[in-house]
Amino acid sequence: RTPNYRELALKILKDSIERMLTIKVWGYIDTYWKKVPTFPDPVCFENIMYSGHLLQLLTLYESISGDFTYDIDGFYFVWDKDGDPIAKIHYTTTKLANVIYRQMNEESSAGVSCEPGWVYTICQNHPHLGLQLYDIVRNDKTNFSRIASKWK
CA 14 to CA 1: how far, in whole Å? Predict the structure, then answer.
């Protein structure tokens, strides 16, 4: 029965996370944010559709597996495109949640751009769900999901 067969879901989630971390997925950022001081960090400024999806995948994986490897050991974004200097940017699930929360908190509506100057409603769903799962998985010792009241 499917609820007891977590292995396949976990494999799909882990594969999706690993794929999301490859430059093939997030390498488009130089089109929009190359002149931003945080470049080539793909999650530190705007780009909420990508960062929100990643947080949702990470927290869903943690909630189903109980495996906090991505939060303990972390993961890297490696920029090695077009002859630019190679950059390795280290993140954890917690750091990603903090970065997303900070951006939401800085905006009066808690909306974060997914493209420069554009805040789409649908793009906000994934980070909000990711923050809720983050809180739930940590037994509500955090309260990132409180930002949702600002979005309503």
Answer: 21
Return the DSSP state at 43: S
Query: CA-CA-CA-CA torsion for 143, 148, 149, 152, nearest 10 degrees?
Result: 180
Domain count, the chain: 1
Q: Residue 76: which residues within 8 A CB-CB, separation 6 or more?
A: 21, 88, 89, 90, 91
First-to-last C-alpha distance (Å) of the chain: 38
Q: Provide, for the chain, the percentages of residues in helix, strand and coil under a 3-state DSSP scheme, each rounded to the nearest 5.
A: 60, 10, 35
User: Considering only CA atoms, which of 48, 123, 138 is closest in space to residue 93?
Assistant: 138
Q: For residue range 60-81, list pLDDT tens digits in order.
A: 999 999 999 999 999 999 999 8
pTM: 0.93
Q: Which domain holds residue 146?
A: 2-151
In the block, which residue shows the tokens 């906000």? 124
Beta strands in 43-148 (DSSP E): 75-79, 87-91
